Amino acid sequence: MSWLLSLQVSRIPVNGFTIWSASTLTGLLLWLAWPVSPAAPILFVAWIPLLWIEEQLSTKRSGLKFFILVWWACLVWNIGTTWWLYYSTAAGSVVAIAANALLMSIPWILFRYTKRLAGAPWGYLCLVLYWCTFEYIHLNWEISWPWLTLGNGLAMYPEWIQWYEYTGVFGGTIWILLINLGFYHILTNQDGTHRVYTITTWLALLLPIFISYSIYFNYEESGPAVEIVVVQPNIDPYTEKFIDSDNFIKFDQQVDRFVQLSRQEITDSTAFLLWPESAIDGGFEESSLLAYKITSESRALQAEDLKSIEKIRSFKLSQPQLSLLTGLTSYSVYNSESAATPTARKSGDVYYDLFNTAYFLGDDGSFKTYHKSKLVPGPETVPYPKVFGFLSDLLVDFGGTGGQMGKQSERTVFFNRNGVGLAPAICYESIYGDFMARYVRNGAQFIGIITNDGWWQDSPQHKQHLHYAVLRAIENRRSIARSANTGITAFISQKGEILQPTEFWEQAVIKAKLQANTTKTFYTKYGDYLGKTAVWLSVLVFLAAWVKSRITK
Question: Residue 396 — very low, low, confident or very high, per pLDDT cuts 50/70/90?
């Protein structure tokens, strides 16, 4: 970081090449700082070149040029960090990356406008508010893609962000932006305020780190120990799992692999066993999954598929102390169009919902389901289907689940007979902070993440996805058991320490005793309150800036 702070900004030549180089530099710095790179401190200076560009163009009628430069910087960042989307769909990844960079440009355009309207102090304040507003909206609308939320960029340094239990990732976003603004003013203000900016900025950078280290070394995990086993079966989703090819493994044979691996580690003390997302595919009617006995009528309709379910239930009966969580695909049929949900599909005269499901076989003999509710735009859901419904046929098919899928509104927590609550997070859901906090508010004492990261090959995706789970552990002070079909299977402590991580693309089974915490953190109780506050403040401050400009004129 010191090399950048030593630059004499006022001496940098202002020309087309320099400005485009500065834009590219911001994108490259954000890429270099992003997980799984260990260079996260670069985030605290990455936006400085873009701030410099805005200052150089502030006296010119160059709004379009500034927009293009911002979009280019964000595009470089998006390409560098999420290029692996290409593995799912080439054309779709190009559109998604370009569109996400475009959305990221909006806060900067609003910042420039506000700064011109009401002056620099108002403008820089609004940059922080507008960016947080963008991130909050991007977390909660139907075209949600919060992978590059700025606060996520510190996931490789859990020792620095223990205070996320109070702020969530929005605290990290605000911290990164404020430090960038502080260092920018150090570089550009050589008057009497230079010393004040220098002291204040370094204190603002270092003090949260010192506080976090203090929390980290003094935090003691709480809750009774619970033995958990997680399985990584390592079945190739492209050639072995879903696609009828020469290497295809029948679903009941896949169950055999899960059982064989599980038996290597389970003991009479094992309370929970986790198998990954879509561990069993083929499509199961919901009533058959929830029924205590599978009827002959159901067996006739789903003979081959139910063979897998019966194997799972047989294995579970042999381990009565065990609660098993596994991923599968299920569906519900509706008798009429009026009974169908907005997400229901139609086949002939039949309406049905297809679900990415977590199936829970409790130690009390109960069977329960949870339906994935944060769906991936494109592969699992068509955002705003009345507008984009025509794209359904172009969407990638992830294990037979491409297109509009059903979901549920509440976060279901699965409890064993001792009252220990498990949050069944499915894949993409684990990158949403407030969403995951709702599980904990509903009584979850630890988090189970089931995922299939094999779609994106050996790219940074599965590593980034793992490290984002660290943030959920810190925010809620909940231990995490993570089962991946392939990717990285691991445990995560309440302090965000990654324990027993497996290698990519290997069969594995691991066991640990995790503590089932019942205490709710400040963030658990109040969720993304910083993001919500930023939305309202953005509106109020923008209006105040506009009024101020009118009065001045």
Answer: very low
